[in-house]
Specification:
Blueprint lengths: L12 H8 L3 E5 L11 H12 L4 E7 L2 E8 L1 H11 L14 E5 L3 E6 L2 E6 L1 H13 L4 E6 L12 E8 L6 E8 L4 H12 L7 E5 L2 E5 L12 H4 L3 E4 L15 E6 L5 E11 L6 E7 L9 H12 L7 H9 L10 H9 L19 E3 L19 H7 L5 E3 L1
Parallel strand pairs: 11-12
Antiparallel strand pairs: 1-6, 1-7, 2-3, 2-4, 4-5, 5-6, 8-9, 8-14, 9-15, 10-11, 10-13, 13-14, 16-17
Helix pairs in contact: 2-3, 2-4
């Protein structure tokens, strides 16, 4: 924790809000009936999803000033948020005093009797609103606090060009993203843009910082190779925002996907734009990216050579049974990609993280797996084209 909360003891809560830039808020509906009209468990679940593994500090207030600083555990937060619905616990105060729960030092919730209001900067509030949407919780906002007069930074858009290294002719895409996304969201956009399937761990290397994350399969065995690629300061991708690292045109950085196969991509910031009609859109590109788990550059190039020769001893195993004879290394469908990007649920972070209380976990159905419809055919040769057209993405199935 970088902030010294004890220095605020005896000071008004407005000093904390102003110092930290907590200018926006989300107010959960139900007011004095928290947990009656909305499922209280879902409210706790949503808050804990945002908390993740970050530290939590509670500031107790008395007569509008900070009275006490308390470090709490994840279990303490869970227990006391449940108690809040019963009108008791750490956060409950019948005199309507405000309590603050800091997650790290960038976010807090202030809690009145039987009412939760989340307040932070705009980026965190937008993340929280997407989480609340994912749990189908009703709320007011996100809105600018009425007592705050700020000048918002205008949104920017980055026109990026990504190129897969080591394969010729070049496999590349030119696309635009909004500057308010996290690097995990950028990763998910790249997965759609390039045509990867988001099975594996990944990393970005930029400004002597390694920004790391894992795919959504929750079975990223390649993460054991993490130490070979982590150089400089290490940052979690869900906590790093693109706007904080991309600063100028012609800036370059590296993206590695699948730390086992080691697919290295070079990304260039071609333009910084002030407006764009879309949050994410592909402008141009060429050629199909390699299939997942094809053995890296060497394995993929070997596979392409085998595909040219139907008499090759490995043609049946590598091409017919695994790759598919219809695989076209020149394939690129800009419209299909943009159909997937247009539904932000495909890549916005808050819409894909599974609930911490959910017993059912989902994963994307692989192109070479048996189709879910029971036809006995591979998914890619059966229902995949229909799903891409109707859903804008591959079908998900229970793990």
């Amino acid at each position: 924790m970088s902030m010294d909360f004890n220095s605020f003891i005896g000071k008004r809560h407005s000093m904390i809000e102003n110092k930290c830039g907590f200018n926006y808020y989300i107010e959960l509906l139900d007011r004095l009936q928290l947990g009656e009209d909305q499922d209280h468990k879902r409210i706790v679940d949503a808050f804990l999803r945002f908390v993740g593994d970050k530290s939590i500090t509670v500031l107790k207030m008395c007569n509008d000033v900070v009275d006490e600083v308390i470090d709490v555990s994840q279990e303490d937060i869970r227990k006391n948020l449940y108690l809040l619905g019963d009108g008791k616990g750490l956060f409950y105060d019948e005199d309507w005093d405000v309590s603050f729960a800091f997650v790290g030092d960038t976010f807090f919730a202030y809690i009145l009797s039987n009412m939760l209001m989340f307040s932070s900067d705009k980026k965190n509030i937008e993340v929280m609103s997407r989480i609340l949407d994912d749990f189908s919780l009703k709320y007011v906002g996100p809105e600018l606090r009425p007592d705050v007069d700020i000048v918002e930074k205008p949104s920017r858009y980055f026109q990026l060009k990504i190129s897969l290294q080591g394969v010729k002719p070049l496999i590349w895409r030119r696309f635009i993203v909004k500057d308010d996304i996290t690097f995990h969201e950028l990763h998910r956009i790249i997965q759609i843009v390039m045509g990867w399937e988001n099975y594996h761990a990944y990393s970005f290397s930029i400004n002597n910082t390694c920004i790391e994350g894992e795919g959504d399969s929750e079975f990223c065995v390649d993460s054991i190779w993490r130490g070979f690629y982590s150089k400089g300061k290490r940052v979690v991708s869900r906590e790093a925002f693109v706007r904080d690292f991309l600063t100028s045109e012609k800036q370059q950085f590296e993206y590695i996907y699948d730390l086992g196969d080691n697919w290295v991509h070079r990304i260039v910031v071609e333009k910084i734009l002030s407006t764009c009609e879309y949050e994410a859109v592909v402008l141009d590109g060429a050629r199909c990216c390699p299939p997942e788990d094809s053995g890296g550059v060497h394995g993929y190039l070997e596979m392409l050579e085998i595909k040219k020769d139907p008499s090759h001893e490995l043609y049946q195993e590598y091409i017919v049974d695994w790759l598919g004879e219809d695989f076209d290394p020149e394939f690129f469908d800009k419209q299909m990609i943009n159909n997937q990007l247009s539904d932000v649920r495909n890549w916005r972070e808050g819409n894909a993280t599974p609930s911490g209380y959910s017993n059912v976990k989902m994963r994307k159905l692989g192109r070479n797996e048996p189709c879910y419809c029971g036809s006995g055919k591979k998914y890619k040769k059966c229902c995949l084209p229909k799903d891409l057209k109707e859903l804008g993405r591959q079908r998900k199935i229970a793990v």
